[in-house]
Specification:
By secondary structure, the protein is an alpha+beta fold. 61% of the residues lie in helices and 15% in strands. Strands 3-5-4 form a three-stranded antiparallel β-sheet. The protein has a two-stranded antiparallel ribbon with strand order 1-2. Strand 1 and strand 2 form a beta hairpin. Helix 2 crosses helix 4 and helix 5 packs across helix 9. The longest helix has 14 residues. The radius of gyration is 18 Å and the shape is elongated.
Length: 176
């Protein structure tokens, strides 16, 4: 059976279209966007996942949903970029590579432990690289081109003026 046969029901098709257009959203985000009862949404997500049409991954406290054909790295990067604060940190680091912990604290106004928590998570996901310079840690985005490609590809799904402004600045810097 092809995927089309599994998408005959309108609600199931709506769920699939939402997952495809907003990969990495978690259950509650999908539920709010689709305005669908939780039990019905869970039923359709499980149905689509059991048939390999979509896949899911646990991201700390959230189960995030993706089209099955999406690669593992893109899923990992999207899981980081779906969260507002980590996304802001990543965008800042793309434009300001080699930022120190102190500079990030000043920019974001977070407590040192909260910032460290986000940076460790981003580092574990391979999005951020930490380099030591004496006693100081400097942070940069590892796969800059890949992160920017993901932001461009999935721009409409972020609904975030920060992403829009970032991409404007990025294109100005690149001269395109």
């Amino acid at each position: 059976m092809d995927a089309g046969e599994h998408l005959d029901l309108e609600n199931r098709r709506r769920v699939f279209v939402r997952v495809r257009s907003h990969p990495g959203e978690h259950l509650r985000e999908l539920q709010r966007a689709l305005e669908m009862p939780m039990g019905l949404l869970n039923h359709h997500l499980n149905y689509l996942e059991e048939r390999g049409i979509i896949s899911s991954r646990m991201d700390r406290y959230y189960k995030r949903y993706y089209p099955s054909e999406m690669g593992a790295r893109e899923k990992t990067y999207l899981s980081a970029l779906r969260q507002e604060r980590p996304r802001s940190i990543v965008l800042h680091l793309v434009l300001n590579p080699g930022s120190s912990h102190r500079a990030l604290l000043e920019n974001f106004g977070l407590s040192p432990s909260t910032l460290s928590f986000y940076l460790r998570d981003l580092e574990a996901k391979g999005v951020v690289i930490r380099e030591r310079s004496g006693r100081e840690s400097l942070y940069s985005v590892g796969p800059v081109d890949e992160v920017v490609r993901i932001l461009i590809t999935h721009r409409p799904s972020f609904l975030d003026t920060v992403v829009d402004r970032f991409l404007e600045v990025w294109f100005e810097k690149k001269g395109t």
